[in-house]
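Backbone description:
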Amino acid sequence: MEDRSHKVLLALVMLFLFAVIVLQYVCPGTECQLLRLRAFSPAAAADPYRAEDETPARFVPRFNFSADDLLRRVDFNIKGDDLIVFLHIQKTGGTTFGRHLVRNIQLEQPCECRAGQKKCTCHRPGKRETWLFSRFSTGWSCGLHADWTELTNCVPSVVDSKKEVRLRPSR
């Protein structure tokens, strides 16, 4: 009987040691418990930019947009001459958003994407011209990862070269 109680005690001690080791991997040091307690305090929820040690914040968010700018409605006329130009900024989710533009937007005539191809066809209803200028619709027409300056110089010439002179819109 005494041998069995020693085995149970040994098993409990081993379980306790295993739990301590796992806790050290999941939550090293004492910071983890302190962060959990601070997450539920009202001060942490009030200002996400406040430093933990109460020193002045090094980052102060500034927005150059008014509430009206952020809430404005922009009408896009797919049947007219409107063109969406997608400027891809690296490491900001641009590839995912660019794919979303060609695959998921609900329009009168959405882009046609074929399996196995990266490029999709985004034509206007009843026309053979594109409404979207991005790497997923026109390819690398302005170069690999073109910036704002390259796009402002390149997009009009690429779009206009595909139209007859009389059909080119004034920009």
